[in-house]
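C-alpha cells in:
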C-alpha cells in the first residue's frame, strides 16, 4: 500500500473511528469485544482498499461492523441473560436492553417491556424444572454454579449444561418476539 492509501485510511479512521466504536459498544458485552470487532473492521478495510474501490465508506464500515458482531455471536452462543438482551437489531429498532433500560414514561416502551417480561416468564415455565431452576438461580439469583452444586448435589458440568439448554430455548423465544416487534 502506498503513502496515498495509508493517508486515505488514516482519514477514514479519524472520520469514523469514534462513531463506529460507539455503534459497536452498544452491541457487544465488553470494551475488549468492542475493540476486537473494531480492529477486525479496520483490518477488512485495509484488505479491501487494496483490491476494490468502496463507494459509500460510512455505510460500508457500519455494515462490516454489524456483520462482524453477528459472526461473533454465532461463534459464541449466548450463555447469560445479558447475551439474550442484545439481539441483533435493524437501524432504529431498539434492542431488548434499550427497552428495559428506558426510564421514560413512553407507553409504547412500557408495553414492550411488559411484553418482554411476559414472554420471558412464559418461556421459563416451558422449561423442565431442572433447567428453569439453574437458570433462575444463576442469572436472577446471582448464585455461582459451585453454590448451586453444593445446594443440589449436582455436578457443576451438569448444571452448566442445563443452563445452556435453558438459554437456547429462551433465545429462540425472545428472538421470535423480537422479530414480531420488528415486523409490526
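Residues out:
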Amino acid at each position: 500500500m502506498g503513502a496515498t492509501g495509508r493517508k486515505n485510511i488514516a482519514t477514514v479512521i479519524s472520520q469514523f473511528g469514534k462513531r463506529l466504536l460507539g455503534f459497536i459498544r452498544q452491541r457487544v458485552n465488553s470494551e475488549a469485544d468492542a475493540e476486537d470487532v473494531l480492529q477486525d473492521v479496520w483490518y477488512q478495510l485495509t484488505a479491501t482498499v487494496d483490491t476494490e474501490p468502496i463507494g459509500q465508506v460510512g455505510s460500508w464500515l457500519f455494515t462490516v461492523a454489524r456483520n462482524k458482531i453477528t459472526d461473533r455471536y454465532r461463534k459464541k452462543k449466548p450463555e447469560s441473560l445479558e447475551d439474550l438482551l442484545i439481539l441483533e437489531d435493524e437501524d432504529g429498532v431498539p434492542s431488548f436492553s434499550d427497552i428495559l433500560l428506558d426510564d421514560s414514561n413512553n407507553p409504547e416502551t412500557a408495553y414492550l417491556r411488559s411484553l418482554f417480561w411476559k414472554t420471558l416468564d412464559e418461556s421459563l415455565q416451558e422449561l423442565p424444572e431442572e433447567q428453569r431452576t439453574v437458570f433462575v438461580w444463576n442469572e436472577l439469583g446471582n448464585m455461582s454454579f459451585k453454590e448451586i452444586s453444593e445446594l443440589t448435589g449436582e455436578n457443576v458440568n451438569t448444571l452448566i449444561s442445563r443452563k445452556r439448554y435453558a438459554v437456547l430455548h429462551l433465545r429462540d423465544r425472545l428472538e421470535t418476539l423480537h422479530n414480531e416487534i420488528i415486523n409490526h
